[in-house]
Protein: Protein BTN
Amino acid sequence: MASEAQYTIQREEAAPQALSTVGAGGAVGLFILGLLNNLPYVVILTAAIELLPSHVPTGLLAFVNIAPALLAKAIFPYFLKGEIWYAHRVVACVSAAFSGMLITALFSSLIVRLSGIALASFVSGLGEVTYLQYTTRYPYNVTAQCVGWFASGTGAAGLAGALAWWIVRPLGVRTGLGALSLLPFGMAIAFFGLLPTPPMSSTSRRSGQSSDEAAQSLMGPETNGEDDAVEEPRQQPAESLSFAYKMQLLRPMFIPYILPLVTVYFAEYTINQGIAPTLLYPVPDASKHWLLSTMIHTLRDYYPLYQLTYQTFVFFSRSYTSVLRLPAIPKKWLWAPAMVQGSLMFFLTTESVFAWFRESIARSLVIVLIAVEGLAGGAAYIGSSDRATPNGAQPTALQRQEYEFRIGSVGLGDSFGILLASIVSIPFQVLLCDAQVARGRDLCTRV
Structure:
């Protein structure tokens, strides 16, 4: 088995490898997979106030919406061995995502509704791990762009999910969420109909397509067929990575890649689920705030607007490597978004308690800070995921499993941070509301 140093996940900053353009089919397919895989998660978070009784903190929904995803990300990369049957996983993810959303829509019982949310969450986590691992099967000179297009889709899921709920919200939970439950079937169309068969797969997803054809269908017209041709790897014996060896692979990834994501997403989702629901102001007067008055008609409109703003800027920051072809954050700067999120968490917490922003600009300033929060979170995700993509020569079957494990492990960081935030935000929201009431501001009790 190759040494850890030989297959390091860090790219050489001084001599980056030239990338060919990802082909239209591969780009669109990966974008759709990221979009539809994360859409149920975002819709449920955006609809938190409508899905829960008024006396239940939104942090409870956040916990149920992330804990199963964390479980999936912990189980599948770490404990399952051998080759991944991607087609089977995709079918399972599509079916379970549809079922989870439908259960959430059709049943008003809190326990049953939370069970549906948990099911949708589990397959969302499994889907993210699966699709990120699947990108390692493509030629290495386009793997980073494959990750970029998938990440762009996950960012678009935030925007599309928030917008989708904003549109169907007048229909109510039963009809609106029921209609959105059909969207996960698009993942099957994208995976089986748009993605080319990876030339690095030892077990093909679809038969009848050669490795060279697959490489050409994924890579754009700039690709030189002779220079970028990839030889088919020799058949490897049936081997798998042991749990102990996976822990060896994980150790050098923890501080530079995983821990920054934990920190970023802990602060980010503490803001989203614990602080943002308490950032309430009187309904804006059209004569003073003409734009905000068109979007905010009741106190309940603040939270969906915050979520829409956040998800919009997450999409922008997760798309810069794929759409704009800009490099991801260097390894040495991966802690910068965590510092930004920590500062935002402090400022918004003090605003919630003391209302020290000037009333005339408080609403707009909060929205701007939430936009910055989205930019920092998206940049951290794409930076860590991009740096975890493999680099090097055509791998053996066992080395492919190493690459799949590495990129699948990165996603554990954001899910763990969100899980911690969901636990903290439940009492934190109550604490902030109590502090507001003690200071004579009771808007948080009227939502």
